Amino acid sequence: GKDPGDFVRLLGHDAANLGAGAAGKGSRIYGRTSDYIEAMDVVLADGSDFRVEPLSPAQLDALCGEDSLAGRACAEVRRVVTEQADEIARIFPRMNRGLTGYNLQRTLDAAGGFSLHRLLAGSEGTLALTKSVTLRVLPKPAHRALAVIRYASVDAALSDVGRLLEADPLAVEFLDENVIALARQDIVWAGIGQVLGGDRDDDVKGMNFVEFVGESEAAIASQLAALEAVLAQALEPSVVDWKLIADPGLIAQLWTLREKSVGLLGKVPGRRQGTAFVEDAAVPPDRLPDFVRAFRALLDRHGLAYGMYGHADVGCLHVRPLLDMKDPGDAALVRPISDEVARLTRDYGGLLWGEHGRGYRGEYSPFFFGPVLYAELCRIKTAFDPQNILNPGKLTTSLGGVPVEAIDAVPLRGTVDATIRPEHADGYERALACNGNGVCFSWDADEAMCPSFKATRDR
């Protein structure tokens, strides 16, 4: 049977993914969380239960005619998506990682079908509380293969993505030279160094992991042949070398490296560590090389080191500048860098949040949605939550409610960490480096549990 620990992790991931409307590796083919929702059971702001499932035009008419919070809220949503159809089409980017949270673009289809779950997924608890969700699941592909391609520059790696997509892979995942350098010093390298290393290591400034999945070995072979044809046209010295891996165990180890990128950037020697606040900007994939070039120049101007990795196939890279959040000077950089990255992503036709939701970045909602649609979002919020009690201060606000919190006015962990006296902090570096991902809360006998949680049961 299914390992209970895996089941618990699945539920936790689904809850987080639903709230943020998230997506991850493979989203170019499989889409995002909201694409697999069949139904939701939610609690509305007045305490009433509501079943969310696709509605026909007649069913929507009946619901909107009800004298209930659900009826009034859905009537308001229908009004907005109908009256503002042209503005929605103009504002919402046409890309895999589009505007999540209040997804007006996909709530009402051309035939009048109403899918409220598209609006709720990614709303981060600001419109309703989810009790349960029914998901459509797909079988895992029977076969997979992975190509690891090493490049002489970040720009070469990102510029090559368009060609790699001609082979129709499941995903193209990117690592920059800074993440690669950290990986070489980590224990993870012991198992995969023979694949990722070589006699030209110093020439490698970027890598693409290209994964293929299929129901037969023949299907995989066909895709790999297409990739080989693409790579045969590669111009030296942009591509240093490349390798094909079919061994499932080695593929799993290689993906472990990609998954450890966050952790690697969180244990850099020194006070500055990878910090998440502009970590999931997304742009149309064909504009990614130019966008990243400008993004790197922006961080270089601020004198910051950083790491970049992520979903190059859909134009979404995770970027973590290294900051010491206990230093007021470093903490003060959150505002100007966020403002600059927001302008940069909009200039390139993208958005600031492409995967992990908005959260405290909600103050940038008017910047991306525009004044007309943002005002409509506030009306939708008011219809669902007139007293502004559901996750207030995030994403949008009820009319007349508390304003959305500013990104540089929220409590920062570094402020608390700075109150710990150095003599008390010595010897507890690993505890202070905790990034809060929660993996160590696991009860699995084969995994390490957080010592503090084990002793106190306090997260």
Describe, in plain words, how this protein is organized in 3D:
- The protein has 459 residues and is an alpha+beta fold.
- It has four domains: 4-135, Uridine Diphospho-n-acetylenolpyruvylglucosamine Reductase, domain 3 (2-Layer Sandwich), CATH 3.30.465; 143-259, Alpha-Beta Plaits; 273-357, Alpha-Beta Plaits; 420-456, no CATH class.
- Helix content is 40%, strand content 14%.
- It has helices at residues 4-20, 27-30, 57-64, 69-83, 85-91, 117-120, 154-159, 161-164, 177-184, 189-196, 217-231, 248-259, 261-265, 288-301, 328-331, 334-347, 365-384, 413-417, 422-425, 429-432, 451-456, and strands at 37-43, 49-52, 129-135, 143-151, 171-176, 206-214, 239-245, 273-274, 306-311, 316-323.
- The chain has a seven-stranded antiparallel beta sheet with strand order 7-4-6-5-9-10-8. A three-stranded antiparallel beta sheet has the order 2-1-3, with no helix packed on it.
- The longest helix has 20 residues, at 365-384.
- It starts with a helix and ends with a helix.
- Mean pLDDT is 86; it is low at 1-16.
List keywords for this structure.
three-stranded antiparallel β-sheet; seven-stranded antiparallel β-sheet; alpha+beta; disordered N terminus; single chain; 21 helices; globular; Uridine Diphospho-n-acetylenolpyruvylglucosamine Reductase, domain 3; 4 domains; Alpha-Beta Plaits; 459 residues
